[in-house]
Design brief:
The chain is an all-beta fold and 101 residues long. The chain is 0% helix and 47% strand. The strands form two sheets. It has a four-stranded mixed β-sheet with strand order 1-3-6-5, with no helix packed on it. A four-stranded mixed β-sheet has the order 2-8-7-4, with no helix packed on it. The two termini are 19 Å apart.
Amino acid sequence: MESETAKVVRIVLRDEDPPKTTAKKGDQVYWENRTGARITQFLLPDCVSPQIFEPLDDGQRTDTYAIRSDVGANSYPYFYKVVQASLIGPLGTRNGTIDVS
């Protein structure tokens, strides 16, 4: 029986809700900011480790996070806030989901 190889999942963040992402336990994931603005807040999904986030300028990517092996098969939401440098206040909060199988 062959074991499945973990994959690296890239999620592109835009100024809209991202499509649902599918991953497996042991996969790695990172987010890339293509919103055209700065992301100042990011509530990571509970399925990833570590739970550390730094503000992210447009064009930058996050560190790579591991999908935890101790999580159940479920949908895990995450949220990020997009802030335009020339405007006061956020453009809005965007919501995404990682489905872990």
